[in-house]
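Lecture 7 notes: from sequence to structure.

We start with a single chain of 241 residues. Read the sequence below before looking at the structure.
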Amino acid sequence: MQIPYLPPNDYTFPNAARLAAEYDGLVGVSGDLDVGRLLSAYRQGIFPWFSENGLYYWFTTDPRTVLLPEKLHIGRSLAKTLRNKSYRVTVNTCFSDVVAACSAVPRPGQDGTWITPDFQTAYGRLHRLGHAHSFECRLPDEAGEWRLAGGFYGVQIGRVFYGESMFARMPDASKIAFACAVPFLARCGVGLIDCQQDTHHLQRFGSETVGLSAFQTALERLNGLPLLQPIESGVVAENMA
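Now the structure, written as tokens:
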């Protein structure tokens, strides 16, 4: 069986579960990163992972790592940080800066980044359409000036938030951003956060793994439901310790 080539202007995908088992998660290759293809992919639990020689490689994972907002776990150390540290967490105040910062994070075992300029452009289009959001953590520097210290971004369709990448320039910054963003997303109506990969970092927040079939069933239900309130630019949480 050959890896399917996804033709232009046709945003359908082949059976992800069958292909993922044969090609280690790879479900297709395309020559574009169009908004229509991105939205179609995410709705089916598929995401673009990297590009090479002008082609984009689309993957899924089985099992899938997810976080249910109501099961968010905040450990004692992070809870103490949230009580005692000065921080300001915002949403959608500097989307392009967050994506650029994520692209600059060194990845062990990787040469460069998958968040190339064309990926940044594509997710910028999703952001302008209201389907991609960034969360920013600002911490005060030695002079008391607020600096972008960490954050993350992802895609939102209906009541699902698909996490993509995060960064931290200062200790605890991305953890603070995530800990504050999850309750905010829950208030907006998000019922499922896709974490893609199973990591110790996410496990500490209460993530769990589900089979791809169960994940896709949840997407079918939640992607079609409207948010309770829009995800608009502004302050999510702050502490002036």
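The longest strand covers residues 146-157. Keep this in mind for problem set 3.
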